[in-house]
Structures are given as C-alpha cells and as structure tokens.
Amino acid sequence: MMLSASERQVLEQATATYEANAHRVLEYLESRGLSAEVVKHYRLGFVAEPTPGYGDEDYVGRLTIPYMTPAGVVDIRFRSLAGDGPKYLSRVGAKARMFNTTALQKVSRNILICEGEIDTVVADGVVGVPAVGVPGASNWHKHYPLLFEGYQRVFVMSDGDGAGREFGKKVVSTLDNAVSVTMPDGMDVNDVLLKEGPSGIRRRVGISE
Predict the structure, then answer these.
(1) Rounded to whole angstroms, how far apart are CA atoms 195 and 64?
(2) CATH number at residue 191
(3) pLDDT tens digits, residue range 137-172?
(4) Burial class of residue 161 (count of CB atoms within 10 Å of its CB; 0-12, 13-18, 19+)
(5) 17, containing H or E segment
(6) What is the pLDDT of residues 95-124, one digit of tens each?
(7) d(CA 64, CA 14)
(8) Same structural domain for residues 66 and 125?
(9) For residue 193, what are the CA distances in angstroms to 14, 28, 33, 60, 64?
(10) pTM for this predicted structure
C-alpha cells in the first residue's frame, strides 16, 4: 500500500523533529563508532517527548532511524537504548521494508546486505561500502533478488548466531552472485567495527582499502 502525501509529510516532519534531538544520543552513537557527520547524514534522532499528531507515545526514549528514499522518508523505526522491552519497534501498521535503498544508486561492483539498520549505517557510512539492510530472514521478499542482479558480488553480513546464519543461508540461496560472511560468535557488524575498525570488515569481504 502506497503512502499518501499527508502520510509522507507527517513522516518528514517527525524525522525533522527527532533529528533535532540527536545531540541527546550523540555520545551513545559515538560509542558505537558513528561520528556526528554520519549521524547527520542518516538523519538519526531521538524521541524526547510525545509529539501531538505523530502517535509516538510508545517510542519516547528511543533512537529514531528514518527510512529515506529519493522520494523522501517512507518509514521510521525506533531502537531501544536502555535494553528494556523489544530492541526495535515499528510504527503501527507499517510494513517491513529494505533500509537504505539509496545505496542501490551508488556506482559499485559490490554491495553488502546487513540484518539491521545500525549495521547498515556502519557498513555504508563508516566502512564506506554500499549497504542495505533487511530486518531478518522472514523479511527477505521474493522480488528483492532483482535488485542485486548487476553486482559482481553481494556480501550478506550475517550475525554470529543461529538467526544470523539462517538469514545468510536464506538470502544467499536466492542470489547467484552472493556469499555469506558470518561475524564471530555473538558479534554483529557493529561489534566487529568496534573491535577491529573499518579495515576488519573490509578484510572479511576481501575489499582492499
């Protein structure tokens, strides 16, 4: 179902409101390896208080991650910072989408597919390799393989756990040009960045500096 013009306007206004509060979570994001410039580029933000008309009462205290496309913001996801409750929440009625689809417009022989939004921001914005995100194997849709036909290699960045390995296995099975790159046990792309730096991720996919 396509978003209406009014829905797109609300999403854009909400994103602008939340990103104005990004300074409140900048220390946390920098501890995850994301610079202020990266935070600004991906318009990450914070729900400081409920805003009338946004329906965000259940998301107060959460990091906001907008899904940006050339046509504007089409969704926002909300990530817990305190470790209480579900790690991620979606807007009521929102459907699962691919994150950071603007990466598909970059000229590159290679692209990464990550499981989560933060891992995608790390790969795309910090490591410097175009990356998109898919929130789990169940959200890999049958039409997605068409988006990756022109790439020389698609690296599926799998978390180092059972769900991550299942994610990698499912995605790779649908792409002739893909290989699963599994992170160490109990780690994800962001963890590897913090431990080994951008070169650690590039080395794992065989891309030189």
Answers:
(1) 25
(2) 3.40.1360.10
(3) 899 999 999 999 999 999 999 999 999 999 999 999
(4) middle
(5) helix 5-19
(6) 889 999 999 999 999 999 999 999 999 999
(7) 10
(8) no
(9) 30, 15, 7, 28, 21
(10) 0.95
What domain count does the chain have?
2
Pairing of strands 110-114, 153-158: parallel
| Domain that includes residue 78, residue range | 5-90
Residue 95 in domain: no
**Would you state the pLDDT for residue 83?**
75
Do 64 and 116 belong to one domain?
A: no
- Residues 85 and 111 occupy one common structural domain: no
| Assigned domain for 85 exists | yes
Last residue of a domain, one of 56, 90, 124: 90
* Residues 104, 112: Cα–Cα separation, whole Å: 10
pLDDT in tens, 83-92: 778 999 999 8
Please identify, among 43, 66, 90, the residue that sits at the C-terminal boundary of a domain: 90
Residues 6+ apart with CB under 8 A from 197: none
> Per residue in 174-195, pLDDT tens?
999 999 999 999 999 999 999 9
